[in-house]
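The protein record minuted underneath.
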Amino acid sequence: MRSQTVRSENLFCKLRPVMITLNQSTNPKVADMPEISIVNPQSMGRPLSLYGQIARVRASEFVFISGQLATDLDGSIVGKRDFDAQMKQVFSNIEKGLKSVEASFANVVQFTTYLVHSQDIASFRRVREELFPTMFPTHRYPPNTLLVVDRLVQEDFLIEIETIAAL
């Protein structure tokens, strides 16, 4: 293992620079499995849906999956005008991305979700309640930030989800 020291400065707040030491293994397969703690401190109140307030992660590597849309292998839209079908396809695409780096939903530490219509929030919650018990059998759900936006890359897309996972 070799260590690299990185200087990080917060440009938006007047904080002292912080020194961070990153351990980089030359063989990522040898690296330790991540320690992921999902917590909901009582002092923060109960989450409004299926998500954790805080994910505390000790990992050797992070994976950032770009916002996934409801597309099939050919790039065709799955579930045009069908929010539930699109959301299920998005999670299917995320799962494929996770598997491609030898990970699973157990490695997910954060989602960022973009919806086009605020009216789909109830459907978003319902579909999560349907899918999440299988995806997260421990019922420890990663943090999720939900944003309602004007539109996505094409007008037929109703949902997009970015994912961060720890290995």
